[in-house]
Amino acid sequence: MTVRAELQAVTDRIIERSKPLREPYLDRIRRAADDGPHRKALSCGNMAHVTAGCGTADKEAISFTDAGNIGIITAYNDMLSAHKPYETFPEMIRAEARAAGGAAQVAGGVPAMCDGVTQGQPGMELSLFSRDVIALAAGVGLSHNAYDAAMYLGICDKIVPGLVIAAATFGHIPAVFVPAGPMPSGLPNDEKARVRQQFAKGEIGRDELLKAEMASYHSPGTCTFYGTANTNQMLMEFMGLHLPGASFVNPGTELRDALTKAATRRALQITAAGNEFTPCGEVLDERAFVNGMVGLHATGGSTNLILHLVAMARAAGIAITWEDMSDLSSLTPLMAKVYPNGLADVNQFHAAGGLQYMIRELLSEGLLHEDVRTVAGEGLTHYTKEPTIENGEITWKDGPADSGNDMILRPAASPFQATGGLTLLTGNLGTAVIKTSAVKPERRVIEAPARIFHDQADVKAAFNAGELEQDVVCVVRFQGPQANGMPELHSLTPLLGVLQDKGFKVALVTDGRMSGASGKVPAAIHLSPEAADGGPIAKLRDGDLIRVDGEAGTLEVLAEDFEAREAVTADLSANQFGIGRELFTAFRQNVGPAEGGASVLFAAE
Q1: Which parts of the sequence bind [4Fe-4S] cluster (predicted)?
Q2: CATH fold of 422-575, please?
């Protein structure tokens, strides 16, 4: 299949830019793979420790045969609904590996925090940094050098990006990512949003709000809106790290268990001991990341991935930029309307044809690279097929050729809009991004006076006092990675939405983040350089006229004396302690800029 020239041009420049990183990376992982099964290098004492906790059959397989041994990295905890199903996965994987003549061991656990719990709370200031902690923790688990392949159990916001960074770092062994699926549909997302705004306006009490929230988030499984967690799952299919069709199968079903067992068998089949050796570092090439970025735009995915993709790629020796993402957005049709971009949830999206339909369509339009390596085999065409159970066995058949609901999912040739849902903004305030897919066209250009805040709590206080009842650009600064870990500011969305619904022109400008579920209110986010680094946002004053133009891709302050002003500083001492923040001082001091992925791991490069 031939890709469009414009898509190939972006890919080629990424390949060229990445050569100083990618070539040494590939050399390293190929030399590591050439060393052969690494258990052979372990001493007898080492091996005794590896197998001491195993049963007799696993001890025999690991110690005295060339059977593949899978290292399981799990993000299980039973507070996160998305990760609760993983409680039973290790035993299922061990049993399936044993039946296939191999073995599996839990190599290590990684933390998994929930942004839904920490929204508007101090713990949110640890959220972005948890991605790099997850990568480090997975690295520790795999450092025992006893595994022929790895299976990664993780779903949510920072967890999959952190696991991908680890998988790329251990790129000489295969990696299969294993989802657990979304919870069944609960309270419709538009109804949940309506109740949140009623609460913000004081029309209902906390009891009514809590009932609505609990009806939305009601059982094990991923939250059903199309936020960062479900965007992660989409990426793992577009980038060839899931089995085809694995992302959106509900937990606790026969098909879900069959997919987990099939992932185990596949992990054993693609080790260096077999004929289909598929090291993760060669799956994660430049074309795979271009495919992931196209998927992000075609689905109207989470803005958080604009940060994560840069860091994920860097771990594989690939240098991608926000400009690459913006150029791909201009080529990619927006094919899906899933909340917050529409009323449907991911279960309805999946039922309408889901990722298999989208990949088929994008391939036919030359908007994806087909000639990629994946854990399912050579070629992205594998991912146009969907899994099914026939006679008790899992099999894959051709996915739908037509959308089951064109209010949710449309062909690439007649999309919801001609371009993707993310736009790069540049101007005298720096570089930012805006998610336009959920913003009505008439609200994508906002010019209004600024109101400056250094804390989201102050925005809420000003709203409650009636001080924002006007056209306004709320500027929330000193929210970048150096200042306080770059928290999401999603808890401001209901307030700003109330002002917008009253007819005011409203926008948000921040060096922080918004949730992957945000979008109704135009928001210029991830502004770089950040205020704590002396960025231009630190020069803004109350009343400055700001223009946020999501159509032209510009972000500017219209003040003649702006360049000559001194940047203000802020007292950030309140960010330094409490709820674990004191443990992350070194992260805040050493983190790289948002444009570089806001990573501690690659900040010095």
Answers
A1: 156, 223
A2: Glucose Oxidase; domain 1 (3.50.30)
